[in-house]
Amino acid sequence: MQINSNNVDQNTCEIMHANAEIELESFKAMLENYLKMYYKKEFSLDYRIKSVEKMMKKIQLRRKQYGQAYGPHNLPDIIGFRVSVDTEDEVIEISNLIEKGLNPTRKVDHFVTPTDSGFKANLYYFSLNGINIEIQVMTKEMELWTNQTHDEYNYKKYSL
C-alpha cells in the first residue's frame, strides 16, 4: 500500500493549524505583556495563523526548490506576529528587547538589508510545542507597504 504524501501533509497541516490555535493566545499574551513591560511607547501587534491551504502551497513551492524532504515541520511561520512602531530607531529598540529577553532561535535581518522586493523588517523565529512562530518588527509605514503588496506578491509566489 502506497501512502500519498499530499494526504499526509494535509493531515499534518490540519493538526498543526489546530495546535497553533491553542498556542496562539499564550504566546500572544506573553509577547504583549513583555513589550508593555519593557517598551513604554506605542506599538501595534497584529497576528495570524497560516491557513492550511497556504501551508500546502508553500510546501509545494519549497519542495520544488529544496526537494521532497521539505515538509510541514519546516514552515517557519505557522503563527505570524507583526510588531509595528513609528520610527526606525524604535524598530531597533524593540528588536533589541526581543533578542535579549525572548531568545529567538534565529534572526533574519531585512532591516539593514531589505529584500529585492523592498521588504524591510527584522524577523525572529521561535518554536513553541512544535509550532513555528515568526515575529516581524517594522515601521508602520513599512507595514502599510507590506499589506498593500502582500496579495500581489503571494499571487506570483504561490501560482504553481
General description of the model:
With 160 residues, the chain is of the alpha+beta class. The chain has a single domain (5-158), classed as Beta Polymerase, domain 2. Helix content is 51%, strand content 21%. It has four helices and five strands; from the N terminus they run αβαβαβββα. The protein has a five-stranded mixed beta sheet. The model has no long low-confidence stretch (mean pLDDT 90).
Strand content: 15-25%
Q: How many beta strands in the DSSP annotation?
A: 5
Which parts are unreliable, with pLDDT below 50 for 5 consecutive residues or more?
A: none
CATH 2nd-level architecture: 2-Layer Sandwich
Terminal-residue CA separation: 28 Å
Indicate the CATH topology. Answer: Beta Polymerase, domain 2
The shape, in one word, is globular
SS content category: alpha+beta
CATH H level: which superfamily?
Beta Polymerase, domain 2
For the biggest β-sheet, the strand order reads: 1-2-5-4-3
* Helix-strand sequence: HEHEHEEEH
The radius of gyration over CA amounts to 17 Å
CATH first level: which class? Alpha Beta
Give helix % range.
40-55%
